[in-house]
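re: that complex we talked abt at group meeting.

here r the seqs, copy pasted straight from the sheet so there may be weird spacing, ignore it
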Amino acid sequence: MQRIINALVQFRNPILYFFLLGFSLLFLSSRSSFHQNKIGELGFYFSSGLYEFSNSINQYFDLKEKNRILHQENTQLKALALKKNAPFLYDPYLGNPKRFPFKIRNVNVIKNSLLNQRNYIIIDKGTEDGVQTEVGVITSNGILGIVKSVSKKYASVISILHQDLKINVRFKHSNAFGSLVWKGKGPTEFSVEDIVSSAQLQLGDTIITGGMSSYFPYGIPLGTITHIENDSNSGYYIMTAELFENPSQVYAAYVIENKFKGEIDFLNKEAKP
Amino acid sequence: MNSITLKTFASFVILVLFQVFIFNQMNLFGYINPMLYVLFLVNYRFDRNQTLFIFIGFLLGFFIDLMSQTGGAHTIASLSVSFLRPIIIRNAFGITAELPKSFQSDPRIINKAVFLLFFILLHHLIYFVVVYFSWDAFSLILKSTSLTAFFSLLLVVIISSLFKPTK
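got the structure back, here u go
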């Protein structure tokens, strides 16, 4: 006790000084809002580093949940974007002019491959979540495939990296349409077939979905034309295309379901005797 | 209450009033307000109680701040400078030499000039750092400090030469 008092007496000047300094800082901040802000900033400068550190750790723990929320949000945005692409049916003055009978669900890819000539993908949603067979699967930058079979909680998808799958496509700056087929080379290397050589095409044009199947809506951008060759014997173009996105490296995808698919299939059956 | 205390008290009051009502309104060249009240901290006897001096320095700045409606810059500057005064005295007058009893009583002019210069510069630097309180205003702080310190120094020298040194 005696020592404490001795120390207090010995350091009375600095103690008094810092006490009065603290008082005058309080006085300063109470009288001048500029200094109040500045002193607040100073305190914030020291505390913000700590907060940032703790925040970065906290964020790390709920990344999975954040991803889920973002994926869900993207699903809604995807639907809006695709709807905006949809062609006008009649004049916009007559009310809602767009026809977009598609419903979008977010799914995660749990198994993917590119090593076979006919690849399949497994996604983590099945009949319990309303996924049906024969519906399209798209990604953020293209399309992934078509659902082939569904179990309770999972579904298997014919990948776009499948030699027998033909996707109806057209071009951004041309009305010609054809089919996109994988030839089994690189995972982004595709060829476009069935385009008559009378069509006007340019290198680098964007390939979009044609909207003529019941699987995919019109206007999903898929890739660009990298090579055009006019084959005079057959009367068709020989064309290669590069996809925007590697389908074998996709994690998040969307199942896109056409509400009127039944009607279209029925009409297709009727047409064929 | 002896005569020295009375004189000190009177000079305290007079300097505060002069500072608030005359020198803070000067605005030389638009923005220079010389700070004469530093004279009180300079003239306060060296051999008195340091603790009391810190408190008086605080009160001096506090009253000026209160009366001139400014923030707390005068308080912090004069408080800090009165806390640091023994260090400045030691550096200006030498450690080994016998310390003078007050600023006025010492005959060495160069030491006095050094002491005055250091003291006023330090006071003004702290004052303007607190007033601007921003790294962006660094050059502005230096400019204001040097210009205002020059005029304060001039005034302090003139005023203190008008009065006879206290024995």
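couple things i noticed - Chain B has a mean pLDDT of 83. Helices of chain B lie at 3-21, 38-43, 50-67, 73-93, 109-132, 138-162.
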